[in-house]
Design a protein that fits this description.
With 1014 residues, the chain is α+β, with helices and mostly antiparallel strands. It has five domains: 176 residues, Jelly Rolls, CATH 2.60.120.260; 161 residues, no CATH class; 163 residues, Heat Shock Protein 90 (2-Layer Sandwich), CATH 3.30.565; 104 residues, Rossmann fold; 201 residues, Heat Shock Protein 90 (2-Layer Sandwich). It contains 25 helices and 34 strands. The strands form nine sheets. Strands 1, 3, 4, 5, 7, 8 and 10 form a seven-stranded mixed beta sheet that branches. β26, α19 and β27 form a beta-alpha-beta unit. The protein is flat and about 140 Å long. InterPro entries: CheY-like_superfamily, HATPase_C_sf, HATPase_dom, His_kinase_dom, HisK_dim/P_sf, Sig_transdc_His_kin-like_C, Sig_transdc_His_kin_internal, Sig_transdc_resp-reg_receiver.
């Protein structure tokens, strides 16, 4: 590991050096300079000598932006230079000794004499602040920003660029326009290089490639560190490392070749400058944070506080001020901050050598010191380059490359530390695993004795006291034995896994009758599968002897059948046998969920899952047991949603054992289960009906034993469809709903039930194994009334059930009493109106009065036959009351009143809320037609559409004003009468009911009542 790390570092350093050498190989180091604005390159071979830097004296024209046209004049018409300057000196000065202002506009010109060449040349322009434009032989070849006077379109941009051109002859005139109104410091280390196109391209490509390579490395390093920090926020050094490397990536993008500036040309250049300033500061601050995380004693508290204040102040100034102001802060801030980094690096190095640490911690600290030194060199070089004090950033870029190499070494070192810790933890876990196995073995042995006692005692009671037990007690004993057997199987599996892993499992090999084993196991599943619609068929009809351990063969059969039961809601399980030479193959085939192709290889691995259902480690144990008995267990075939077939084979033997003894053993288990224990028929009377929606047999039996003592009528459902069907077919007073059942969650079922039944109509009690606020919130939001945890405790369950049922009864009684009171108000109102009409005819038309009395007697019969608390009546009877009332009204008003019926034929004998239609007809006649001179027609319509009943009473009378209609439709409308107000109140009491009034003054009124079909 260590040798590989050293090799990696060496190769990385060699790569950096090769890049530097390749980069420098195209540059010439011959000292040819311009004199008085002229440069003689007639003896220069660009192919042999490489790229030349355009050093020396350039003509300078201060305060003017001149173009090639300006230099085409003759004699005095040509502009005269202000002087001559060397663009590669810092600060710039001409030979006469006058200094140029950093800000302003100016033009530089250089005339070069070349030897004749047909090669395409290139010019690379870098580090010219803050904008420039280049003309070559009267042609504009490139620019960065827009050099102009400040009020005439000046735009800053210092992005480097390369331009390529061919020349005709041996003369080359370069005119450089420069404008700067932002950067305040003197010193213009302009970088202008002339060479062949391929050389210039190589330089540009090399720089961009190097910057991109470092940027990509920085990106992945930052992702690595920030990901670690997001997973564990305890060590903030990972956060600081991530921020530091991100700042390196940003700085590379907005400096050097300024890749980001080229990619996003529409963003103002000042934004990139500010981004670079922030990146440099955050890099320094993050390094200080890393040092503080490595050793809290390196940085004093007052120093750390001062750094925070300086950093925040600087960032604030950069964000809120212009670059021309914040650039002054750079010169004040960066030098002290870099000095502080140097001090911290010295302290850290001193601490490493003074204090004794583990070798690996010491190594990482040493590597970090190297990282600090590299960053400091890079920062110093960048600042010197930024202030035009050095000509190249090569040293800084090389230091950054070494920083990335050291970073990779640190990551490798941390990986090695983590690997070593994992090895140590693995050793400890192995020791803990041994202790765990010993604990499980001892615990399993301790549990086997009491479980064995429970099974045997229950079997004794079944055999010896069958006649003394009633059906309920007898089935409780059966369930007790089933639970004990199931728990015993779990204990056995757990113990066997432990013994198998330690090669300590011992088998008792004998001659075993497969038929007997299969019958015993299948018999045990009769009570387990009562909760599901599963049929288990044992097709082994005759004795077949195999060689193996009787208990382990039974355990294998149990595990295979149990695996099938756990992975199906309904269907068939068949056990078959086939003799093949000296082997006997036993198959367990089911019509369950099947196994997907990608999961087939996993079914025999311990603790594997299939979909959302857990396949216990029974299959794994079974295969191990069969192989120990010189057999084989495998998955023969499977198909999703069709089923599976597992086959295990064992050695066949023709030796016979005591068959009669085995049959006797079977007979002890052959107890016919009680039919109907899980569900009683719904009985008419006052008994309340409770629906239990549960898929665990043990929970069902416990709930039954509690509720049966309270004389409740109990129904059982084990699926969503079964539950919804029984709710629709029975008058359920309470639902005890498991939070999770096969095929659906209790929450979904509860919501489905609440679409039809209110909290009062059918209370729902959610049951779950967990008692968490999350589950409680889900249940209550879904519409549950209450919440109970499993296993059920008798007193708690009785209290909750009684509370909810009594609440339902009390609310129903209150509603019925109020409705009866409202209905009772209608009867005297109608009696008074009817008697008044009959009395008026007794004096004038006796025969008519007799007919009216006949109609009145029909109404009275309808009234007296109906209980005051009866909320519903037959539609036919309600219409008879309407006819009686209309006939009485006709006696007074004549044929001015007409009534029409539009009744759906199959609705005549259906139940509707009592006294809804008659009061509406009465209201239509008295308030709609009575005031109309020529009378009118009342239309009554009753329809059933998509499970809802629509009752509509329409008249073509006088209608009502908009103000009156608004008053009637108001939810707060009430009066002392018994008309529409009474009907609206009663309609609101119905589930999912509504009353709609529509009226147009002068045209009539329509009243519609809508409610769910009863």
């Amino acid at each position: 590991m260590k040798s590989l790390l050293r090799l990696f570092i060496v190769l990385g350093m060699v790569f950096v050096l090769l890049v530097i050498l390749n980069y420098e190989s195209v540059y010439s180091h011959k000292g040819i300079e311009a004199k008085k604005g002229k440069m003689d390159l007639t003896n220069w071979d660009f192919g042999r000598d490489g790229i030349i830097r355009l050093d020396g004296e350039w003509e300078v024209y201060e305060g003017r932006l001149l173009t090639p046209k300006d230099f085409k004049g003759i004699g005095n018409l040509k502009p005269l230079p202000t002087g001559y300057v060397k663009l590669t000196l810092s600060p710039i000065h001409n030979e006469e000794g006058f200094n140029l202002s950093p800000k302003g506009v100016r033009t530089y010109r250089l005339n070069i004499t070349l030897k004749n060449t047909k090669d395409i040349l290139g010019l690379k322009v870098e580090n010219i602040k803050m904008s420039n434009r280049v003309f070559i032989n009267s042609k504009l070849e490139g620019q960065s920003g827009n050099p102009a006077f400040k009020d005439k379109g000046y735009k800053p941009n210092t992005a480097p660029y390369s331009t390529y051109f061919a020349i005709d002859g041996n003369k080359l005139q370069i005119i450089l326009q420069v404008a700067n109104f932002d950067y305040p410091f003197q010193g213009y280390l302009y970088k202008l290089h002339l060479g062949l196109q391929e050389h210039i391209s190589l330089v540009t490509t090399t720089k961009i490639s190097l910057e991109m390579a470092v940027t990509i490395c920085a990106f992945f390093f930052s992702i690595y560190y920030l990901s670690i920090y997001s997973m564990s926020k305890k060590d903030k050094s990972y956060l600081y490392w991530g921020i530091n490397i991100i700042t390196i990536m940003i700085a590379l993008f907005v400096s050097g070749q300024m890749i980001l500036v080229e990619l996003l040309p529409r963003i103002p250049f000042y934004a990139f400058i500010k981004l670079k300033q922030l990146a440099y500061m955050l890099r320094i601050l993050s390094l200080i944070g890393i040092v503080n995380q490595i050793n809290k004693n390196i940085i004093r508290k007052n120093e750390l506080k001062a750094v925070k204040i300086i950093g925040i102040s600087y960032i604030t100034v950069v964000l809120i001020t212009s670059y021309s102001i914040s650039v002054y802060i750079d010169s004040v801030i960066y030098i002290p901050m870099i000095c502080f980094l140097i001090i911290l690096t010295t302290r850290l190095a001193t601490d490493i050598f003074k204090n004794k640490k583990e070798a690996l911690d010491r190594k990482e600290s040493t590597l970090f010191v190297h990282c600090m030194i590299s960053i400091i060199i890079n920062a110093i070089n960048n600042q010197l380059y930024s202030f035009n004090l050095v000509y190249s950033r090569l040293i800084g870029s090389s230091a950054l490359g070494f920083f990335m190499i050291y970073m990779a070494y640190i990551l490798s070192n941390r990986y090695f530390l983590a690997y070593r810790n994992m090895e140590s933890m693995a050793d400890r876990l192995m020791q803990m695993d041994i202790i765990k196995d010993e604990f499980i073995t001892k615990t399993s042995y301790e549990l086997k004795a009491p479980l064995y006692g429970i099974v045997k005692i229950s079997e004794t009671i079944i055999r010896e006291n069958r006649e003394l037990l009633d059906n309920s007690d007898f089935n409780k004993i059966i369930m007790l034995r089933s639970m004990a057997l199931r728990l015993s199987g779990i204990v056995n599996n757990t113990l066997d896994v432990t013994l198998l892993r330690n090669n300590q499992l011992k088998l008792s090999i004998s001659f075993v009758d497969i038929m007997v084993c299969a019958n015993i196991v299948v018999e045990g599943f009769k009570y387990i599968t009562q909760k599901k619609d599963i049929e288990i068929t044992n097709n082994i009809r005759e004795s077949v002897m195999v060689k193996g351990d009787k208990n382990k063969i039974g355990q294998v059969l149990f595990n295979l059948i149990n695996n099938a039961v756990e992975n199906m809601d309904k269907g068939k399980i068949e056990i078959n046998i086939k003799k093949q030479g000296s082997r006997v193959s036993i198959s367990v085939e089911d019509t369950g969920f099947g196994i997907s192709l990608e999961k087939i290889e996993k079914v025999f691995r311990p603790y594997e899952y299939e979909g959302s259902e857990e396949r216990s480690f029974g299959l794994y144990i079974s295969r191990q047991l069969v192989e120990l008995m010189e057999g084989e267990l495998y998955l023969d075939w499977t198909e999703v949603n069709v089923g599976s077939r597992f086959i295990f084979s064992l050695p066949y033997t023709d030796k016979k054992s005591n068959l009669e003894s085995k049959i006797s053993e079977i007979d002890n288990y052959n107890i016919k289960p009680l039919t109907g224990i899980l569900e009683k028929e719904n009985i008419a009377g006052e008994r309340n009906t409770i629906l239990i929606v549960e898929d665990e047999m043990e929970n069902i039996m416990v709930a039954l034993s509690i509720l049966r003592n309270e004389d409740y009528n109990v129904l059982i459902a084990s699926s969503k469809d079964d539950a919804m069907r029984k709710v629709a077919e029975n008058n359920i007073d309470l639902v005890i709903l498991d939070l999770i059942i096969p095929g659906a969650s209790g929450i979904d079922i509860c919501k489905e039930m609440r679409k039809v039944y209110t909290l009062i109509e059918m209370p729902i009690l959610i049951s779950t194994l967990k008692n968490t606020n999350y589950d409680l919130n889900l249940a209550l939001r879904a519409g549950a009334n209450d919440f109970i945890t499993k296993p059920f405790e008798e007193k708690e369950m009785i209290a909750r059930v009684k509370t909810l049922i009594n609440l339902k009864k009390s609310m129903e009684e209150a509603v019925k009493n109020e409705l009866a009171f409202l209905q009772a108000q209608i009867k005297p109102h109608f009696l008074y109106n009817s008697l008044t009409a009959i009395i008026s005819f007794c004096y004038t038309d006796g025969e008519r009065a007799a007919k009216l009395l006949t109609h009145f007697s029909k109404y009275l019969r309808f009234t007296f036959d109906m209980d005051n608390k009866a909320m519903y009546t037959i539609l036919r009877k309600e219409l008879e009351a309407v006819d009686a009332y209309v006939e009485i009204k006709k006696a007074r008003l004549g044929e001015k009143i007409k009534i029409e019926y539009d009744i759906q034929p199959d609705m005549m004998d259906e139940k509707i809320p009592s006294l809804y239609i008659q009061p509406l007809v009465e209201n239509a006649i008295n308030h709609g037609l009575y005031e109309k001179e020529d009378g009118g027609t009342v239309s009554v319509s009753v329809r059933r559409i998509e499970g809802r009943v629509f009752i509509q009473v329409k008249d073509d009378g006088v209608g009502m004003t908009k103000e009156k209609l608004k008053e009637l439709n108001s939810m707060d409308y009430n009066n002392s009468g018994v008309g529409l107000s009474n009907i609206r109140k009663r309609a609101r009491r119905l589930n999912e009911a509504d009353m709609i009034i529509h009226s147009i003054e002068g045209k009539g009124t329509t009243i519609t009542i809508i409610f769910r079909y009863l």
